[in-house]
Amino acid sequence: MGMWIMAGVTFREAARKKFLWIGLAAGFGFLTLFGIGLHYQLAALNTRVTNPILRREIVGAMLTMGLYAIDLLIVIMTVLTSVDTISGEIASGTIQAVATKPVPRWQVLAGKWLGFTAMLTVFLAVLVGGINLLGYAMARITAYHLVRGFTMMWLECMLLLALTFCFGTVFSTLTSGVLTLGLHGLAFIGGWIEQIGALTGSPKAVDVGIVASVLMPSESLWRRAAFEMQSPVAGALQITPFSNASVPSATMVTYAGIYMLLVLGFALRNFQARDL
C-alpha cells in the first residue's frame, strides 16, 4: 500500500514540474511542425512521384525520422525530470519526511519509480500516438508493428529511469545526470559505429558497437524499435539511416530488460543501506 501511495504522490509531483509542461509544449510543437512538413511533402509527391509504392515508402521514411526525434526527446525528458528525485531529496533532507515513516525504504524508492513510469508512459504514448495519427489522417500510413516499436522505446525510457535512480542513491544530482547521459551517449556513438561498420563490411567496427551496447544497451533498443516500425522495403533499400544491416537481436532486448532490473535492484540496495 505504501508503494502505491508513494507512486501516486510522485506522479502528482512530476505533473506539477514546469519542465514537464515545457517538454509537452515542445512535443506538441514538434507534432505541429511534422504535420506541416508532411502536408507540403505530400503535395510535392503527388505532383512529382507517380509510383504509389515509392510515394508510400518516402512518407514512411519521414515517419520513421519523426519517431527518432520523439525517441531523443523522451530520453532527455526521462533523465532531466527524474535525475533529482532521489539525490536532490537526499541533499535537501526532504527524503527524511517519508523515509523515516513506518514504510520500508524499498517501497519509497519503488513507488517513486512507478510514479515516473506512469508519467513517462503517458508522455511517450501521446507523442507516438500523435505522430501516427497524423500519418494516418494525412497519408493513411502508420508505423509497422507499432506496439512492438512502442514497447522498445518504453523499455529504453525505463532503463534510463532506473539508471538515474541508481546513480541518485550514490551521487549528486549533477553527477547522476552527467553519468546517465554520458552512458547513453556512449551507446549512441557505439550504435552508429556498429551500423556503419555493418554497411561498409567492417567486422571490427561492428564489434566495437556491440561492446558499447553491452555496456549500455539503451540505443540498441531504439534501433530494434526502428527495425520493427519501419517498412521492410525501407530497411532493405536503406531509405532511412536505420537499415537492416545490423539489427539488435531478441537476445539483446532480453539483456536490456535484465540490465534494467539489475540496475533497479542496485538502486534499491543502495537506498536501503544509505545513511540519510
List the secondary-structure elements in sequence, H or E.
HHHHHHHHHHHH
What do the pLDDT scores average to? 87
Tell me the Rg in angstroms. 20 Å
Number of helices: 12
Distance between the termini: 23 Å
Outline the low-pLDDT stretches. none
Shape: globular
Decide which structural class fits the backbone.
mainly alpha
What is the domain total for the residues? 1
The major β-sheet equals: none
- Sheet-strand content, in percent, reads under 5%
The proportion of residues forming helix, as a percent range, comes to: over 70%
Q: Report the count of strand segments.
A: 0
Could you describe the 3D structure shown?
- This protein is an all-alpha fold.
- The chain has one domain.
- About 80% of the residues lie in helices and about 0% in strands.
- It contains 12 helices and no strands.
- It is globular.
- The two termini are about 25 Å apart.
